[in-house]
Amino acid sequence: MRLAAPLVVSLAVSGAQTPASSERPPQENRQSNAPARKSYPMAQVQNGDSLFQQNCSFCHGRDAGGGEGGPDLKGSKLVTEDVDGDKIAVVVRNGRPQKGMPHFDFSDEQIASLMAFIHSQQNNALTRGRRGVDVSDLQTGNVEAGRLYFSGVGGCASCHSPTGDLAGIALRYEGLALEQQMLCPKDAKSTVTVTLASGQTIKGTLEYLDEFTVGLIDPAGVYRSWRTTDVKYNVDAPVNAHVELLRKYTDEDVHNLMAYLQTLR
Q1: Can you tell me the distance from the alpha carbon of 100 to that of 251, in angstroms, rounded to the nearest whole number?
Q2: What secondary structure letter does DSSP report for 86?
Q3: What are the tens digits of pLDDT across the range 53-84?
């Protein structure tokens, strides 16, 4: 099994389109406003599957059907309205830091394969319920090996302390929620420094960021925003350090760290 980071895409199933005829078909047969379904080369879907399992399945489930930490992408309105990755690419590359989702520096080819897999999963979805990570998957691991990884090669102790910020974490989170906090913490606050055309810099807590707008809460508690084309900005997101670790973790590392974190009560 491979556990990985989160790729957060929008929620909600798109509404059904009202038929032109006065005779309305059953709900399940109504047509969607979404573009016509498209098929993708098997090799492209398989490449996207591999990328998804490595980077996204932890939160969104192995089949993109959602998990406790991330929404069901097969029922996502954004995915439904996406055309050749035009919406998915924006979310993947920019992330949604305010929702705990980091950005991913994927190539155009990787984005295309990821999009192909997600769309294929949505196309194949019928009436199955969501599948996430099984609870039994989180019950293995060696506590001592996890402690050594935390304090040594993993580098976790350079930012975290079992008697400081992590004290009692196993009482605040359990199961998948605890593992999500370990791999990609949702409550990690990002800061952003915005440089105006005049040269003035404004620093605050990142509140909103997409391809058009960057917004922050300044030290006075006031929300301020700018068009991204009018300013320069630099985001300091602690969650990115966790994302970098995802490239280095082995399955054994993840399970051992989980075993150790569950002792911090």
Answers
A1: 22
A2: T
A3: 888 887 787 888 776 567 778 778 888 888 88
Q: Comparing C-alpha atoms, which of 57, 4, 265, 250 is closest to residue 146?
A: 250
Q: Check the CA dihedral 103-107-109-110 and report its sign.
A: negative
- Burial label for 135, CB within 10 Å (0-12, 13-18, 19+), is exposed
| Domains, the chain, with CATH or none | 36-124 (1.10.760.10), 135-186+240-261 (no CATH), 191-236 (2.30.30)
Distance CA 222, CA 33 (A): 39
pLDDT tens, 196-213? 999 999 999 998 988 899
pTM here is: 0.45
Structural contact between residues 187 and 155, judged by C-beta atoms closer than 8 angstroms: no
